[in-house]
Amino acid sequence: MTKRALITGITGQDGSYLAELLLSKGYEVHGLVRRSSSFNRGRIDPISEADPEAGKRLHLHYGDMTDGVSLVNLVRTIEPHEVYNLAAQSHVKVSFEMPEYTASADAIGTVRLLEAIRSANLECRFYQASTSEMFGATPPPQGESTAFYPRSPYGAAKLYAHWVTVNYREAYDMFAVSGILFNHESPRRGETFVTRKITMAVARIAAGLQDELVLGNLDAVRDWGYAKEYVEGMWRMLQHDAPETFVLGTGVGTSVREFCQTSFEHVGLDWQKYVTHDDRYERPTEVDALIADPSKSRDVLGWEAKTHATDLARLMVDADVEALVTER
Ligand code: NAP
Ligand code: G4F
Predict the structure, then answer these.
(1) Which member of 57, 82, 128, 150 has the greatest number of CB atoms within 10 A?
(2) pTM (2 decimals)?
(3) Which intervals hold domain NAD(P)-binding (predicted)?
(4) Shortest CA distance to 284 belongs to which of 149, 97, 132?
């Protein structure tokens, strides 16, 4: 039997890697896409171009996490065996500027989707893209039983989504899984997240196209892993024999400053000559340090991060250097 999966957020970093993974496993993949006045399929169009046969099993549908009717109709039409809820307003700083929209898309959007599945009476496994931002001010290491203390409207919205996922698991016996993922990056990372902002700037500075990189807090510590590896962890969570909550991370903390240093050094440059500071990139409340305790995922799912921050920075710089060469 061909398994059908529905991915919300398929046009994003994780959605595109997950779609590739599921197609490579023989799934029929359905993706929810938002209507946009400009092109927003740059991460997924190459999937069908690279493998037209797999592309025939990839289907895109318009919808929005803020529009419950579109979710109900989609779930009833597709009757998916697995739903991966990756769609979100995922930028922490932006969530301070758009708290209400962030809550609607990230928190209420999740319960809209869970209700769409429940009301359709489907035997369907559900994955919720939860985040280490939910730990916020609680010091590391952070694992499945660490107390939550979100520090942004994004973190608070995701915490609601996490708890409503756990509640639907307990109240309705749904196979609803919450994957609490620490930061994961890649050459497909959005350009306003700090790692990609740094690696793109490094490539441009090395090519003589830019002379400065303006950043905010350099002291923040994050547990940065490689997104391509993390989508395998999401899939494993839904293949496990019981619905649970799992943390994915590398277990290694790296500061923004260190990530900068590694990225600039990779092209033979001294970061201190190029990086300047502007308060506009600071947040009203910051999350100082996120470092995972990923032992449950290792022991139960056999999942382990292979790529850590140093190699990740180098592979992202290489990709951005290469992209500039191709562009020119
Ligand atoms: P991303 O690149 O920002 O992708 C977000 C996706 O959500 C995009 O496809 C976006 O569509 C879609 N989206 C946003 N608002 C929507 C709405 N109202 N209705 C429908 N779709 C909407 O995020 P990501 O890095 O791949 O992360 C995937 C998920 O994991 C997110 O939920 C994020 O919060 C969570 N997460 C990420 C990390 C990380 O480090 N990357 C860590 C923990 C958790 P457009 O392309 O049209 O904008
Ligand atoms: O790259 P960031 O914007 O990622 P952040 O806030 O950790 O959130 C990401 O990871 C979460 C998982 O923990 C996800 F849930 C979330 O969706 C997103 O993917 O910022 C990382 C750190 C922050 O401390 C920030 O203050 O970098 C600091 N930073 C310093 N200068 C900057 C900048 N961040 C951004 N985006 N831009 C700067 O110029």
Answers:
(1) 128
(2) 0.98
(3) 6-316
(4) 97
